[in-house]
Amino acid sequence: MSMQPDKVRLRSLSARRRSANVLFQSLCYIATALGLTALFLILGSLLHNGLGGVSLRVFTENTPGPGSQGGLRNAIVGSAIMTVLGVCVGTPIGILAGTFMAEYGRYNRVTPIVRFINDILLSAPSIIIGLFVYELVVVPMGGFSALAGSAALALIVIPVVVRTTEDMLLLVPNSLREAAASIGAPRSVIIRSVSYKAAQAGIVTGILLAIARVSGETAPLLFTALGNLNFSLDLKGPMASLPLIINQFASSAYPEWQSLAWTGALIVTAAVLLLSIAARVLVSKRSD
Amino acid sequence: MVNIPMSSVSVGARDLAIKRFAASDALFRLVTRSAAYLVLTLLGAFLVTLVIGSSLALSTFGVGFFTTQSWNPNPDILKFGALAPIYGTLVTSAIAMALALPVGLGIAVFLTELCPLSLRRAIGSAIELLAGVPSIIYGMWGLFVLAPVLQNFENNYLVPVVADVPILSSIFAGPSYGQGVLTAGIILAIMVLPFIAAVSRDVFLTVPAVLKEAAFGLGATTREVVRKVVLPYSRVGVIGGAMLALGRALGETMAVTFVIGNDPKVRASLLAPGTTISSSIANEFAEAKEPMHSSALVALGLILFVITLIVLSAARLMLARMNQRAGA
Q: Is B118 helix (H, G, I), strand (E, B) or coil?
């Protein structure tokens, strides 16, 4: 007689545990579905609204005045110039700093501090970088300029490259360095012709990720490069950039500008996603 | 006789080569060290610049800058208080975390415990791609796609339903224009979701399989394994990841600027427009002519930087502790 309620209780307990588990698992499935839906909704509306505007004209004509037709040539060229400049300045500094942290200063007391600060810079609000460059470059130079924009982008590139360079150099087996040292190669030669070679793919991945990150950045350019509706190659003057144009056109009331903003958004997103995918492929190839 | 000068020449050449190596080594070392120290000083340089830039506003308004909400760049008035942007920044980030944390953890559990191995990588990569989409795209999408949908939903369903409930009726007081604090919070949630999911997945993967297998072997369900084995083991890492995401949400600019409505007032209703620190700077800084106005904006930047610095430092310390344990 006393066994019966126990059994019932056990069965009800196991049923409760099982149904709680089913509920929990369903919630996890729903969460994943939500995340994927968000991705598809965003990419879908980009394609839906932006694809119609993609034509040769986008690449050959400059941004139009309000209410007329045109392209995004000045913005694309401006973005390319500032991205290239920013990456060209930021990458060497980042690689060198990462090299110090992983090679010369691996057991240095300063290295953990540099790593900590770099990790914070990695996720610091990019608009703060804009303010910093404004005070440091725009004010002394007396005006907004492409140089200031590039400096802001370089400051975003540095932490990304430092992080990946250090991580990748730390993965290089020490036996390779020891082998090179045993045939009398000095430290700098070991780093350049052994460590860099072995970590090449990883370092390139870091640079690709940095380019991807930088090419979509808007906030740090708002009051450094400022933007420009005309075509300009003058590094000391305001320059257009795709994200800046998207920002300006999307919040305008003109349908032509809004549709160009969608097209620009599609181009930026496609470029960023392609770069991230390329970086991913490069890493997976290395680990194969 | 012939050999002696020859060898002395080669010894000289060897010495020279070694000296050259030593010199180039020292130079390379110096260059890399200076680059590392440059990174080290950047953070301090940011802080010093912001402090100098904001000194005018902070010395004029004092503590009142943090407690008042009048924001008037009119040259005849020039009165600035940071309360509304600080409030907006904290509330939008809180909404974002409240929405994104459960969903992100759910995705991480799905990826580590439930997903078939063949799909794991594809879905994981898709979620990570979501993290790569530039923030301005989220802002644009929020403005043109999400805001009209939310406006319709809020005006037709949410506001009438909660109209007679005491507290909810003031939190969700209409009318909604689609752009407001809640919309900004939702967009931020979508933005930080992939970070939370990816970091949580990574820390979940550090849980030793033996622990989980032992629990499963005792008959534990997936839910019990996650709640009683995985989460306790990885708690520090999950909190670290969440704070990393919070740091991003606090400083996010473009996505918020598009959808928050940009009105520097503290309002009870989440459907009303508001502003955040970063969107105030983004909207006004390039046009700020008065030194006091731009100094007030830099002061906002300083506040934001200090807040994110604290949050990010805590996050990094927690993640470092997690990694140490995973390595041990």
A: helix
Give residue A137's pLDDT band: very low, low, confident or very high (50, 70, 90): very high
The span from the CA of B320 to the CA of B315, in Å, is 9
For residue B134, give the nearest of A36, A134, A268 by CB distance. Answer: A268
Residue B96 near residue B189 (C-beta atoms within 8 A):
yes
Domain containing residue A184: 57-287
Say if residue A92 is in the same domain as residue A119: yes
- In the chain, the amino acid numbered B136 is I
A38 and A73 part of one domain: no
How many Cβ pairs within 8 Å bridge chains A and B? 268
Taking CA atoms, A85 is separated from A33, A148, A150, A152, in Å, by 40, 11, 6, 10
Q: What distance in Å separates the CA atoms of residue A32 and residue B106, rounded to the nearest whole number?
A: 7
B251 part of contact set with chain A, CB < 8 Å: yes
Average pLDDT over residues B176-183: 93
DSSP string, B71-84: EE--TTT-EE--HH
Let me know: does B24 contact B32? Beta carbons within 8 Å.
no
Domain total for chain A?
2
Query: Any idea how long chain B is?
Result: 328
Residue A111 has pLDDT above 90, yes or no: yes
Could you tell me which of B105, B186, B174 has the C-alpha nearest to residue B143? B186
Composition of chain B by helix, strand, coil, percent to 5: 80, 0, 20
> Token pair 């009165």 is at which residue?
B79
> Which of B21, B31, B42, B310 is the best mutation test for A, with the most CBs of A within 10 A?
B42
B211 contact partners, CB below 8 Å, separation of at least 6? B229, B233
CATH class of segment(s) B64-327: mainly alpha
Report the alpha-carbon angle A233-A239-A241, nearest 5: 115
Same domain, A253 and A234: yes
List the CATH number of the domain containing A238.
1.10.3720.10
User: CB distance from A51 to chain B under 8 Å?
Assistant: no
ipTM over 0.95: no
